[in-house]
Amino acid sequence: MRQSLQKLRAALERTAKHRICCETLRRLLKKRRVTLKSNVKRLHPKPHPDRDKQFKYLTNQRKQFEREGLPIISVDTKKKELVGHFASAGKQWCHKATDVFTHDFPSYADGKAVPYGIYDVTLNRGYVAVGNSADTPEFAVDAIVWWWQSFGASV
Q1: How deeply is 141 buried, as exposed, middle or buried, from its count of CB atoms within 10 A (0-12, 13-18, 19+)?
Q2: Does this model's pTM top 0.85?
C-alpha cells in the first residue's frame, strides 16, 4: 500500500468512520511492524525463448569483422546538456569562480548539446560527436558517418 499517513487517515475516516490523528496512526502501524519500505527487486521473469539469439548474432558478426580486419564500434547517446552559463559538477583551479544561473531553465539556454559516443573496440579509442539537433536516428547515422570519414576509413 503506497499511501501517506494523511491519505490512510482520510480513508479510515471515510470508510470506517474512525477519526484518528496521523501520529496515533503511525504508532499503531509501528506496533504492528508496518513501516515505510522501498521496492525490492526480487522478481525474475522467465527469459524470452529467443533472448540469446541477438547476442549470438552480434558475436558472430564481431568475429567475422575481426577476421576481415574491419572496425568494430560501440555507440551510445549521452546525456543532453544545456548550453550556456549553467552549474556543473566539479571544480577548477582559477582566481575567481565562474558565475552561473541560479536555475537550469531551458529558456535560459543558448541551445542544447547532444553528445553521441562512438567507441572503437579494436583500437580502444573513444570519440564524441556533438550536435545541436534532437537525439534522432538521423543524428546517430550522421555521427557514425563523421567517425567513419574522419577516423574509421583510415584504419
Answers
A1: exposed
A2: no
